[in-house]
What does this fold into?
Amino acid sequence: MITEITVKGYFKENCFFYIDEITKHGFIIDPGAQADLLLSIVRRSGWTLDKILLTHGHFDHMGAADEIRRTLHIPIVACSRADEYLLDAKKNLSALCGSPIIIEDTEHISDGGIITSAAAPALQLKAIYVPGHTGDSVMYFSESERAAFVGDTIFKGSLGAYHYPGGDPIKLRQSIIDRVFSLPDDTALYSGHSEKTTVGAEKRRYSC
It folds into this structure.
């Protein structure tokens, strides 16, 4: 089960819960702001979060992660290159928006790594490295749900931004073509700042 919650900090951003309907265990992906709201949803729904997953280290995707980690005593998981952003308030852009944020002691996931829930082993996400928006960008793909949480790599109708530190338009386009578009056409794409779309729909927008 996938639940999307739009949170509002400095920017609006889409946060996602990926939850097993039987055990009610699962993950939260990109909690960018409003930790109190997100925690209240968890309590009200009777969910148990096992991990916090970050698609990349920009502050609008991880601004509430530390408070949720402290409250629920669960790990934050991010790309093996994420410390480059999480430990640098200028590079994660939080210092430029008035409230510096640093996140330490994250667990790292490598390209191709599988994230599972001990309570719900069938609940699996594969981490796929997609550099271009940032140097630490990953998407999380659920084969069973035919869904991918893509962060800011691709939006409905456009590729992601690449003008922030670590952004690279060539790498971004290559990540989209080689990695996002290698997923089945009916895969739903859940991004940080647009409506849901599909791999097939976005392929048709590209000339490649």
User: Anything to note?
Assistant: The first strand starts at residue 2 and ends at 8. The radius of gyration is 16 Å.
